[in-house]
């Protein structure tokens, strides 16, 4: 027998056995599937093989898991029926038509369309209470899983516990709660910020400030750590007077630092902050980049069209959505496992807001 004529993989044999039992009505709707150990003895296969087969059946919607009780036949019964199930993407943000949200959604949809799974988008305008109420409502209904872009991931821990009790797979996008392990996709914030600040240093800047936006977010804290690390590696000590952590930025203080020569470059935690600063400083007569260089993070679509085209760190929002959806399908409802944190690479984009000293 040639290699191409070999029998199907053992995990496929397990899948075929379960599907045959369902089709023959040996396992009715909500019928309990044998455990891993029972399958191992019945079909003479390893527990790892059984686990792979059952995970695929969960992903396909044929069976579902209940924490502490086992695996059961889905109410929909077959993979074809289960393919109509939904993934819900919850976005808590500033504007639904923000280009970054649209790119993330495009990535999510790109993956789900390959799985025959439909996407529901729920948008909440930067309001955590509405976000929490929406999540609590969603977990009472049938859903393939949740993708969550939270306005306040630390506060989200309250409802994340409830999602886990329901054994609903979920993945956090971009923003992660501290001290609470979750499956998540984010860009490499730390290294991206390091590369941006190192570029400023390499081009002669020594007095480099930092401007946050929502500093309670994990992504912003990671970018600040990258900023600090780049400064330390260059034996530079940040001036506390040029570190801006509040949403309401002190422009009088910022402008004074620029005019006094205490600040020649400013690393902004995101493009939203950077574009706001460019707009305000130009109104105040500050020339960019002649008097101060500005660096952002994200590479919004509008950044290249700003009054002064913005130098920034680009993250791939479409890949964020695609990989987030793919991770959601990999989870399979397995309760006993380690959580995954996947970091996506970034790249530096240099435009006209940076001047070499």
Automatic annotation (TrEMBL):
Occurrences of domain HTH gntR-type (ranges): 8-76
Domain of life from the UniProt record: Bacteria
SUPFAM superfamilies membership: Periplasmic binding protein-like I, Winged helix' DNA-binding domain
InterPro entries: LacI/GalR-like_sensor, Peripla_BP_I, Tscrpt_reg_HTH_GntR, WH-like_DNA-bd_sf, WH_DNA-bd_sf
Sections of the chain in a coiled coil: none
Protein keywords: DNA-binding, Transcription, Transcription regulation
PANTHER family listed in its UniProt record: HTH-TYPE TRANSCRIPTIONAL REGULATOR GALS, LACI-RELATED TRANSCRIPTIONAL REPRESSOR
Record's protein name: GntR family transcriptional regulator
């Amino acid at each position: 027998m040639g290699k191409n004529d070999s029998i199907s993989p053992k995990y496929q044999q397990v899948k075929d056995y379960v599907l045959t039992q369902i089709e023959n009505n040996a396992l009715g709707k909500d019928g309990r599937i044998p455990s891993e150990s029972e399958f191992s003895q019945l079909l003479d296969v390893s527990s790892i093989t059984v686990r792979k087969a059952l995970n695929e059946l969960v992903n396909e919607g044929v069976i579902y898991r209940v924490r502490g009780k086992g695996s059961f036949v889905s109410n929909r019964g077959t993979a074809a029926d289960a393919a109509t199930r939904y993934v819900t993407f919850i976005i808590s943000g500033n504007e639904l038509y923000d280009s970054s949200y649209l790119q993330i959604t495009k990535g999510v949809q790109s993956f789900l369309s390959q799985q025959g799974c439909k996407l529901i988008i729920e948008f909440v305008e930067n309001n955590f209470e509405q976000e929490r109420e929406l999540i609590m409502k969603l977990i009472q209904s049938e859903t393939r899983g949740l993708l969550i872009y939270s306005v306040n991931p630390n506060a989200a821990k309250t409802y994340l516990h409830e999602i886990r009790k329901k054994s609903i797979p979920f993945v956090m996008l971009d923003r992660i709660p501290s001290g609470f392990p979750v499956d998540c996709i984010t860009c490499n914030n730390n290294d991206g910020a390091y590369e941006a600040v190192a570029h400023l240093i390499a081009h002669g800047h020594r007095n480099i400030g930092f401007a946050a936006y929502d500093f309670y977010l994990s992504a912003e804290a990671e970018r600040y750590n990258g900023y600090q690390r780049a400064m330390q590696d260059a034996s530079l000590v940040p001036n506390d007077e040029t570190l801006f952590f509040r949403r309401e930025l002190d422009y009088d203080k910022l402008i004074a630092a620029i005019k006094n020569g205490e600040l020649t470059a400013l690393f902004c935690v995101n493009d939203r902050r950077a574009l706001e600063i460019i707009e305000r400083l130009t109104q105040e007569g500050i020339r960019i980049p002649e008097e101060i260089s500005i660096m952002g993070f994200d590479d919004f679509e509008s950044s290249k069209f700003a009054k002064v085209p913005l130098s920034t760190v680009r993250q791939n929002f479409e890949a964020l959505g695609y990989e987030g959806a793919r991770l959601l399908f990999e989870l399979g409802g397995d309760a006993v496992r380690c959580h995954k944190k996947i970091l996506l690479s970034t790249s530096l984009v240099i435009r006209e807001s940076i001047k070499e000293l």
